[in-house]
Amino acid sequence: MDAGIEEHLAAGRHARAFDLLVPAFQDRVFRLAYSILRDRAAAEDAAQETFVRVWKALPRFDGRAALGTWIYAITRNTCLMELRRRRPTVSFDDPESTEAMHAAADIATGPAGDPERDNLLRLVDTLPRNQQEAVRLFYLEDRSYEAVAEQLGMPLGTVKNLLHRARKRLMELAGPVEVKAA
Amino acid sequence: MNDVNLLPPCAEFEFDLVDLRDGALGPDRARAVRAHVHACARCRGWLESFAALDAHLAEHLPRPALSSDFAARLEARLSAATRRAPASELLAAEDDEYSRLLAALRRNARRNAVLGGIAVAAVAAGGILLTPALLTATGSLLGSLPAQERAIGLGSAGAMIAIAALAWSALQGALPMIRGRA
Fold first, then answer.
1. Is residue A112 within 8 angstroms of chain B, CB to CB?
2. Domain span at residue B109?
3. Can you tell me the ipTM of this complex?
């Protein structure tokens, strides 16, 4: 956690701490929300809602968990509530469930027009929801296992295993992939 | 991709190949894995295919960014949630409430005036209708009285009827100038 934020929190200067934590966390909160919701506008709304909740709850933050862990948990809950609002049948207990897999399948992913890209995104959409989130976040976070583990609230080994299974599955689904020069 | 690429890698090197691509191996282990890849066509083909998929994902997965006005919108949202209503809004609200109160009072006064008018008219009509009968019924009594006392009696009766009508009208609010405060 940023030392300045920590000091302000310890001193009870919550407004000042909040002023510092927003720029420190806004991009990662947004990327995490995007990896779950797969829609830029929805992710931005979720990020806004996350910080409103953080602002309200900051005086009750007791520091038992890392500030980032706490903020990312709020972000995930905000996004899951949004998914639940869209599809009341989304199961949070079973991330492999069909409903969970396809909870956000109808969310736009960007402009069409590149068949190779569209095919790849369709393949990613076929992965279980937790693998999709890990894959999206991994590349959004410039291939940082640690960042993905922290934001998804998972042990590092679990994240590596998720990513390995996801990419292995994508290799099977994609078939021959042309090797690009580095 | 050729047929060799479709074969799985050596089981003991599978995770190492991924870590090699992700840059997550220590230098000694990375050197050993590269030596194995150099000698093993299956692992080499699998690693090439994995690297191609990795490059595709990095290139094609959407990488949205936060809007430039994210922080400003968040600040506005938090301000709206916390600020007290400005004086102009409070004055406008008071004016509105005062106007609604005046309108209600006017409606009430009009209704009372109509009711009071009806009541006065009814009393007057009743008096006109009943006076001959009363005079007939009390004729013998009045006839036995001296002229001066008869005039006083009739005047007193008329005054009592008029006072009763005024009092009743005042109670109904038809005469607001003498109506008591609510």
1. no
2. 102-178
3. 0.78
